[in-house]
Fold each of these.
Amino acid sequence: MATRNGAQWAIVSDQRGQPYWQRESDGVIATVQLTELNGKRVWYYSAGIDQWFTVGYKDTVRSAKVAASKAFQWYRLRARDFRRIQTKLRRLWAAEGIESVEPMRGNEWDVRADRVLVNGILWIWDFDLKMWVSGTWRLWYSPSMGWALRYPDDYIQQIHVPYRYDAMQEAAFWIGLALGS
């Protein structure tokens, strides 16, 4: 089964000689394997990079491969960002003298038209900068790039979602990983 991004599903064997489907590209791996769950034969799928992955079960091999392919694409788009997060950014920033790395935390009563709370992070609209700000973190939308997140060390990361709330959720995800929480 050929795919648009060049990675193909191939049948490989595990250590016990059991066959399963695998797809790999840029360090991202997806697998689909027949297994038993609660006495029923189902298809287990996983996709991810290093210690970050998505898993699940489906009734058919086709539905498992579809779900694994979607997760595979999600991780593949973000593979470079996951590799950067592995460098233990909080320690790296401290060594570089960047100490103010925490985003602003908030509660429900902090929410207003120009203040949005997502996963405990309070984003405040900065009218002068024309972007969302949380501590030293910045989030904005550009028609040419889409959503972008600026880290405390000025690294710019593209956020691969179309809507503001989704961008804020994904930004919270990356902030949590970067800070080790």
Amino acid sequence: MKIKLRLMQVASGACLAALAISAQAAEQMLDLTLPASSFYTGNENSFMLAATDSDVVKANINTQAATPAAPEFEPPLFSKRKIHQYLGLSTIALAGLTALAAPEACTDSNCPPRPVNGTHATLAKATIVMAAATIATGLYAHWNDFSLEDGWSDPDNLHVLLGVTGAALMAYAVNKSANSSVPVSHAGIAEAGAVLMVVAVKLTW
């Protein structure tokens, strides 16, 4: 009985030894290297390196050169707002010409008759017509810009107030002079109106 048990132990030991040897041989055949090294081809060009700062700058320059620059915005020469500006500047220019064409003041009793249709009078009338056209186009082009809720200190509201007041003063001066048979003092009123119009233009220029 002891001999049989001994034979079984020897047989079991031999089986275990054979299994150990086969397992050791299998372990030697396994490839335990890292995946990266197992697939390494040796071709260094297959990897892309990060771009340097100089490469990025060159790429941006090439992109900018390929993309054409957008043209600068140029407002049209003629629009309702532009026409209002042109008429306002023309009114101021005519007011200046009217002042330059004013006849010399005469204080003697032997003054020549005052010309009512001379250059000064014609320019004065043209100034008033131009001022009326400026106000009309201003109301049409900038109606939405005027609001009493913003107060009189708002530049748009001051522009309207000073422009209309200046035109009214010039119209009053021209009417005062035209309806008088004798020379009357009206230059100061007309010049004050012209100055108010200049300030009105300057506020929104």
Amino acid sequence: MRFISTAAIAVLLTCSGCGRMQESFQDSFDKSFKESCRNGAVKKGADQKIADKYCDCALVKFKETKSMEQAAKTCVAELKIGINPSH
């Protein structure tokens, strides 16, 4: 029983920085997502401003739906009708 208590304390101490690690990972993911998205959109002929709006929207929608296909459909539709997709 003493081993379990010691192990539990060790896990709690280790995870005291988990929030910062998760935040750092999320920031890194967001940056990488936007860069990759922007580069892909520009390669397909999108202007930089439109690519930025689309990618900002796509990141938000991807996080909501966990589906890049759904995010793309939503953001393309929003850009076509003139909604500001940078939620």
